[in-house]
Amino acid sequence: MTSRSLGHRAPLLWLVLPLLAGLAVGRAGEILPVSWLLTGSSVLVVLAGIITLRGWPGWAPALCSAMILAGMSLYALQRPRLAVWDRLPPREAVLGLRITRTFAQNDAKSISGMAVIERTAPHLRELIGQRVYFSLALGAGETEPVRSSLMEAIGVITSLPRDPPADTFDGYLANAGINYRFARGRFLETVQPASAYRQFCARMAKRFSEILGRGVETKQPELTGVLRAMLLGQQSELTDEQGWMFRASGTMHVFSISGLHIAVIAAGLHALLLLLRIPRIVRLVTELVALWLYVDITGTVPSAVRAFIMVAMMLVSFTLRAPGNPISALAVSALIVLIFDPLQVFSASFQMSYGIVAALLLIGLPLAEKWQETWPLFTRLPRATWRWHHVVIDWIWRWMLVALGIGVAASLVSAVTGVLFFQLFTPGALLANLAVIPTSSFVILAGFASLLCGLVGFTAGSLLANHAAVFVLWLVEHGIRGFMYLPAMWFNAAFKAEWIGVVTLGVLLAVLIDGYARRWRGWQRFFWAPFAVVAIGFLCGVRFG
């Protein structure tokens, strides 16, 4: 497969990759006014269309340039900064905030989250429409406001830096499009209550939490917290020790809602509806609605939304019996996410999830296929003479090679992103994940079964599923705890400069795309280049200890 055929099979790469480049340029600094960027992008799109209709060469450079300009304008529109506020000191203000997201809190007397400023005093009216992070105190007897409600609060508002370090909380907020922090204050009143749908989601979130705690919360409160973190995204339930242990072992992705969770729940739901013999189209609609409700009830976490989009595309393709193209599906998913929330591209979650999935498709599966061809079993026996145990052993062997290929591919990306975002190098993560991912999939299915049983009133089933999930979590936690005492499983490490990590990750993905386009032949033969990129990046740019 040539680079040209890769572009033909995954044409959206011509849109996604230049758009990412444009967002990166836009983050680096303002170059041109937004109106100029949008005009230039529109002109280049029209030019690309004319070139294509006339059959001339050169449509790709015009389209790529248009997407770069579009990415630059998207960044400016998503994070409009008021330069004058960078020079102003923090000031007290009374603001009307439309809540867009809330964060789980261990302290019932405080609330935090993200919001859009809708009301201010006249002298602060330039803040209207700005996104803000808030952290406020609640008075006695006051309840936490729900998403979409309009609240009034008093506090101190501070401007965030334009480009804070990626490994800080300010960096996380900047990547979410936040320009201001509103803290050291208190909630005053709810001016407008949340919509009926958002209130329903809030009630269901509390009910889900209660169902997952039945029969186990008083006996194993810490493991119940892990179960809630996995099924509901409530990472505040994790203890500090658990959080550190999961990060250092490279398994933290298992204990927060991500693609694995959505995929496992989708598979369980699909199997259940198949058993009930639901018609094909009705089954598809039911699966999509149920999955989205789960994502929305658990807080519409960006990683869960991304996973929902990818799983939804797979379900639609499977139901309609349409031919699938994983690379195109990944590009479509990324394009949808970037259109609605382009700043996600700068988040650790986006880069890790899409980077790892891309690595799985570009090198993980080809590597596993190559190993299966190189090391087949029972080669001296004709397949027609195989007994049942030959078939079983061969299936297990092939499955192990696929799992190993996927693990190696994921480790390539996670090695770079782990150092870049968490200052941890976890060479033992490959071995840990080979054991943790299958067992955690069982925990997710058990939690899903508990929620279903609890919702239909089958309390005994919910109790049984909770106890099974907590027992497996006990095994997982003790296994990880023992794993952490093994030598050379993790190291403190950091890139000498943030840009070195970003460049290493970018070059790695470029080499993966090129290797896939060449079908891992020519100079990319033996799959050596991606490993060399990571090795050079670590040798030249990483400081250990």
Description:
- The chain is an alpha+beta fold and 545 residues long.
- The chain folds into four domains: 3-78; 83-194, no CATH class; 199-346 and 436-483, no CATH class; 363-425 and 496-545, no CATH class.
- Helix content is 59%, strand content 11%.
- The chain has helices at 3-9, 13-28, 34-53, 59-78, 169-175, 196-212, 221-232, 240-248, 259-275, 280-297, 302-319, 326-340, 348-374, 388-422, 429-455, 459-483, 498-517, 528-541; strands at residues 91-102, 110-119, 131-137, 150-159, 180-192, 424-425, 491-495, 542-544.
- Strands 1-2-3-5-4 form a five-stranded mixed β-barrel. A three-stranded antiparallel sheet has the order 6-7-8.
- Helix 2 packs across helix 4, helix 3 packs antiparallel against helix 4 (59-78) and helix 9 (259-275) crosses helix 15 (429-455).
- It is globular.
- The relative contact order is 0.09.
- The model is unreliable at 1-10 (pLDDT under 50).
Offer a quick outline of the entry.
The protein has helices at residues 3-9, 13-28, 34-53, 59-78, 169-175, 196-212, 221-232, 240-248, 259-275, 280-297, 302-319, 326-340, 348-374, 388-422, 429-455, 459-483, 498-517, 528-541; strands at 91-102, 110-119, 131-137, 150-159, 180-192, 424-425, 491-495, 542-544.
Question: What is the percent of helical residues?
Answer: 55-70%
Sequence stretches where pLDDT stays below 50 over 5 or more residues:
1-10
Average pLDDT confidence is 86
The counted number of beta strands is: 8
Q: Report Rg.
A: 25 Å
User: How many structural domains are formed by the residues?
Assistant: 4
How much of the sequence lies in strands comes to 5-15%
Helices, by number, come to 18
Strands in their spatial order, largest beta sheet: 1-2-3-5-4
